Structures are given as C-alpha cells and as structure tokens.
Amino acid sequence: MKIIILGAGRVGQSVADSLVSERNDITVIDTDAERLRDLESRYDLRGVVGSGIEPSVLAEAGAQDTDLLIACAAQDETNLVCCKMAQLLFNIPKRIARVRSTGLECDERLVGPEGFAVDRIICPEESLTRYIGKLIDYPEAMQVREFAGGRACLVAVRARAGAPMVGQVIGDLRENSPDLAMRMVAIYRRFADEPDRFIACDGRTRIEPGDEVFVLAAQEHIAAVLGALHRPGTQPSQPVRRIMIAGGGRVGLRLARQLAQSPGRFNIKIIEDHADRCVELASALPTNVLVLQGDTTDEDLLGDEGIEEVDLFLALTDDDEDNIMSCLLAKRMGASRVLALINRRSYADLMHGTQIDIALSPAQAMLGELLAYVRQGDVQAVHSLRRGVAEALEIVARGDRKSSRVIGRKVSELQLPRDVHMGLIVRGLPDATEGAVQDLREPEVIIPRSSTVIESNDHVVFFLPHKRLVRDVEKLFRVSATFF
Length: 484
Fold this sequence. Notes:
The chain is globular. It has helices at residues 10-20, 33-42, 55-60, 76-90, 108-111, 124-137, 170-176, 222-230, 250-259, 275-284, 299-304, 320-332, 345-351, 362-374, 470-477, and strands at 2-6, 25-30, 46-49, 68-71, 94-98, 120-122, 141-147, 152-158, 182-189, 197-199, 212-218, 242-246, 267-272, 289-293, 312-315, 337-341, 358-360, 379-385, 390-396, 421-427, 444-446, 459-464. It is of the alpha/beta class. It has 15 helices and 22 strands.
C-alpha cells in the first residue's frame, strides 16, 4: 500500500516505524529537513520537505496514486485542510487525521465528504485515556484490548506464585474449568539476563510464576481469569480507589475529567509543576479533584500526600525520565501499582518487567486504529502488542464454501502458519455489510476446538507473535472474485 504521512513528530515516527515494517511504500512530509533525514537514515522511506497544505508538496510526495493519507502534524487545522485537499485535488481514497479538538466527530457535516473529508479522526490523548481506563477497571492486568464491540478481550497479566492457575498445565485448566470461555494464546518468559522469550501455548505448557500471560476470553470472564493468575488463593480483588496523577498536561487533564464522571468512585489527586497550569486545571476540573503544585519527583511531597495509600500512581508528563523516576520513587514509597508514560521505545523496553508495573507507549495505544485501515480483507480491529512486535487481529469470515478458504471448514483443516494462534470466535454479531441479512441469534463467544466449523460472519480473533504472519492470515480469509 502507498501511504503518505504528514508530520514527523512522535506520532508520525511511531506510525512510520510500524507501517514500514510491513513492506508499505511510505512517504513522510515535514517542514523540518533534519528530522526527515534522521527518519530516512533509520527506515526505508522517502522524505519530502514542505508544508502538507501546499498542492505542489503533496504532488511531489506522490499523492496522485496514494492509497492512504495519515495527517498527524502538530496543528489540527493543518491536518484537516490536508485531508480536504487530498480529496479535492488528488482523490486519495482513505484519509485519517489526528485531531485534538473534541466535538468534530459528532457532526457528520464537518468531517464528511462535504466538510473536511476525513474518514477517521484519531486522538492519541483520547486513545490513552480510554486505554488507562480499562487498566483501572482491571487492576491486575498489564494490558486490556477489546474485540467484537467489547464482547471479548485480550488481557496480559503477570502470573504470581500462589495464584490458582499458576504452576498448572494448560491442558488441566481446560478440564478443570470447562465453563470458563478463555484461551491462553501466548506466554513470555524471562530467562536470567535474556530478553523475554515467546513460549507457544499448548496443552502441555506449564504456567510459571513471573510469566507474562496473554489470555483471550469473553468479557464477563476477564475478572475471574485475572484473579486466577494474579491473586494468591481466594484473596478478593482490590478495586482502584485512590489515584495520583503526576502531570497535568492534556492526558492528565483528560483522564482526571473522565474519572471524575463517576462521583464517589475515585479519590483523585494531580501533581503539576507549573502554577499557571494548576490554576487552569483547578478551573476545568470538579472540586473533588485535588490539584497540587509541586515536583512529581519530590519525596517529601509524595510522602505528605499519602503515597503509601495510593492504589495507582500514573506518571503522565511529557518527560520520559521524570515519569520513570517518579514511578520508581512512588513504588519504593509504597504505591500499590505504578504506570509510566514512555515515548522512547528503548526506555520502554528497559523498564518492562522492572519495578514499574506498566510502561505505556502513547503511540502503541492508538496504532491499532490506524492499522485496521492498512489491513487487507474485512479486518475489524487490530492491536499492537509487545511494543509493536506482536499483534492481535480480529477478522470477519466472508463468503461461502465455494468462495472462501475458511467458511464451512473445521479449524483443524485451516492452513494456518505454525505460530498463529486462533483464540476465539464471536458468532451472531450484526452484519454491517450493505444488504446483509441480519442474524437474530444472541452473539456468543466460542473457544474454538479442532472440530469447530467456521461460519459466515464469524468474527475470528488471532494472536500473532510476529507481525510478518499478518499477510498469511489475511490471504487465508480473502474471498474469491465469485463472492462479489
């Protein structure tokens, strides 16, 4: 696919990194020549110096035959105008814009073909707050990703000694919990000083303490799965109540505002270094959110504010080093769990599996929204995992037995690559294709066995330990021309 990326900032670089690895033809536009030279030296892509709202620059970037435009420059106005020009002058089929301002998606007249002609609006800050919200709902989880409109989830959890499922063989778990709709699709295990090693899951695999376990399950079973892998014995789940946010920037403000919509559920404190910003935060947030001015790495401040009683400490500033240091300090002083927002991938890799419970990359939180537009076939959801190495993919089975390689066939008959793991099937979801006959059954989550037969409109969720396997799955689910 031929793709133009407008903007070589943090988001643009992360998008380029992910898409180049999938053998796409990438061109990046930016006004900073030095930044483009750096990208060209690291990735197989082309840089064009200039403004993305100039027709000549778009033409030089090859807009005449481009398949997808991703406008993620710093200014909303630039991204919106670029999308409109891409439609009017070059007829680029798909156009995605990064927009921080709220409200545009609510009015089709603004973003539709007669407006700015944006097919999809993405907001990294919104993606982050939504993602963190899931981690608050499921405090034992390291990651939570949704599929099939939230009916199924992929969770990553650190196996803990003494938890009911830890130390057991996966095959025995299936026999002991037949009513639990779940499947373990991957384990990452650390050996001495080596990086985490991927362990393929089968019936003979034993779950060991310290394993990072990826589980696909029906949404209603997620809490039970997390407890069985992380909580010793019958210890009850401890919900997150007391939250401390370090950093009152866009992400911190948006998250505090979102959490404050549940009155009485959370006790929220925000620490912000700049006095002017503290005034803005105090005026923008409800009175039950406490805004404090101070250094997020100030040991005395954290102690005075009861860090030892905090259920979740979130370091959300724009400075990776500050986020890392404040999390390490908060953890040492007694915070139950800590999350650090880390932009630099090398830092995130270093922090993974340390005293920092969750090292979160902003780009990884929203990359899936972009990848779904790049994938071939009827891909509904894509989630980038393990800092971009692995992927979870939801794809819809279309066609019939004559036009499809999967419809009407047993799972054991599918020619899947060796490391690809089919995690679950969601059957009975409304079919969004034009003119489709609606299925009146209640949607159900199915854990596939070798004898399970794939039906038309099944939403199948896969775990892929390596992104290079994506094309093989897409090819398998592609329908022949006779379907149309």
